[in-house]
Amino acid sequence: MARALIVHGGWEGHEPDRMAAVMAGLLTSGGAGVEVSDSLAAFDDATRLAGFDLIVPIWTMGTLSKERTAAVSEAVAAGTGLAGCHGGMCDAFRDNPLWQFMTGAQWVAHPGDDGVRHWVRVVSDDPLVAGLPDFEVVTEQYYLHIDPAVKVHAVTDFPVAGGHHLPNGPVEMPVVFTKFWGAGRVYYNALGHRAALFAEGPAREMMRRGLVWAMRGAG
User: Fold this and answer.
1) Domain total for the chain?
2) pLDDT digit string (tens) for 94-116?
3) What is the three-class DSSP state of 216?
4) Please, what sign has the CA dihedral across residues 175, 121, 177, 149?
5) 127 vs 26, 205, 210, 212, CA distance in Å?
6) The domain containing residue 47 runs over which residues?
7) Residue 200 sits in a domain of what CATH number?
8) Which of 69, 118, 139, 178 is least surrounded by CB atoms within 10 angstroms?
9) In a domain, 175, yes or no
10) Is 78 helix (H, G, I), strand (E, B) or coil?
């Protein structure tokens, strides 16, 4: 049985406990065993950490020590998958360049804040998104600084809301992307400001496929 570790906490506005429950449900429905922790101390035992097939971080605006960051990095580099969404992964530790390098992006803005109506467009034929429709969401629209090495599977179009970015004109911003970190697979989905977004529909299926894809031993 595949084993996944979900670590949740940080800023409560992202509903880390509810999001952890959603992710656990997606994983257990596929037959994975899930351990859930509400403490970053879950990253202290590097040997034990490397025994998981997937790590799912759900921790916004926190601080991760050099030692804990290295433990996660080395586990992923050795083959443990890493998958997450929204600020729980790519705004987890703003002062941590290694974390940002490993995860592939860093949040910098969400013009218009919550409640922005925008579209998510599928742009690859990868099995991660194959057959999924483009779909509309009403939520935060993430503007990210992106690792150019990532493979993009879905995007959203800026600008929708106003701001100082407007003079730059239209921008196609990744929403879903994948990359590799050593032998490990990394999956990110910029959606997920509220756990309810993954309750049903293409957003839920997109996230489910990402968790499965990132897991060690996935096809």
Assistant:
1) 1
2) 999 999 999 999 999 999 999 99
3) coil
4) negative
5) 17, 12, 10, 11
6) 3-214
7) 3.40.50.880
8) 69
9) yes
10) coil
